[in-house]
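Data availability (excerpt). The following record was deposited with the supplementary files.
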Amino acid sequence: MSDGVSWAAVSARRLQRHGLAAPLADATPAEVAARMCGTHAQIPSAAELSIGLRLATGTRADVRAALWDERSLVKTFGPRGTVHLLPAAQLPMWTGALSALPMLPHSFAADIRLSPEETDAVVAAVATAVDGAELSIDELSDAVVDIAGPWAGERVMPAFQEMWPRWRQAVTTAAHRGAVCFGPNRGRNVTYTSPRRWLPGFTPADGRPALAELLRTYLHSYGPATPAQFARWLNAPRQWATELFDSLSGELERVQLAGTPAWVCAGDAAVPPAEPEGVRLLPYFDAYVVGGQPRELLYPGRAAERALTGGQAGNVPVVLIDGTVSGVWHQRRSGRKIAVTVEPFGRLSAVRRRELEEQVERVGQILEAEPTMTIGPVTVGPHA
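Predicted structure:
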């Protein structure tokens, strides 16, 4: 990579590393999640599609097997406190790094939020409650209150037009500290369990080395990137991210992207010789667009208007053409059939149309359904 690198070259690099230039041959779902630096899983079917699109073969059943049978994936709260599928083998790094992040200003009033001591008590209670168990949120709440005390169950936390018990402010913190993760659903109910069921003897890695490893992992997937972009991806303070980059300056290499200084890992500056190409249908919250920066290059012109929500990426499924957002799409399932509507932002050539049809077929294979495709306006609004 020269001192100045083009957006096309960066797109080609990221597509290749994400398994979007071509599927990752012989990769497992956990290996794909590692290449993506975690898979957003707020919508389970979107997570299955994100991983499946990067596999040469396989369906959502393979992702589910990796998660619940093989336990090579773990469902937990990842970057930004959002639900992710993370490689179980990397869980010590993730928990060590996420638990070492500086705290952002709390949105709750002083009489609602937990003190540091109360947070520690809740995390310890959660760890005890889920040891060897799979508990629904109500069962977990009862157990935490029994262990920590009645104060933990006071319904003072506003959430979704109701009041939740005080202890639930610390669920994400408990996950980041390695005390809890998600278990298999019990019908429609989510359960919580111990990550030690995935990794016997598991313990989070030391914070500083884990943060350094997480930064290297991020730059491998999304570099060149800036401290501000890394901070945005983690929902962490910019100044803290700048200081982390500075502390690791001997391991990083500086380049220019679109006239702005950005960084890659030292010795990892190569870009593919070919231009980025291909059509991909990326689902809600796909890692490529959530982590990809700068947004003004990834979402040019009309893409920013149609596919970003207040500057936030991922709330709308996107059509990726040559590494850049060039349309939106939506799928509606009915039994064994999926109706896919695609709204490109420009005219599709015959080659692009065939590639799009192949992507729709692949979506159907992954989700184990029969797809149909319509080219036209997408009228469904963004996901919350």
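Summary of structural features: The chain has a mean pLDDT of 95.
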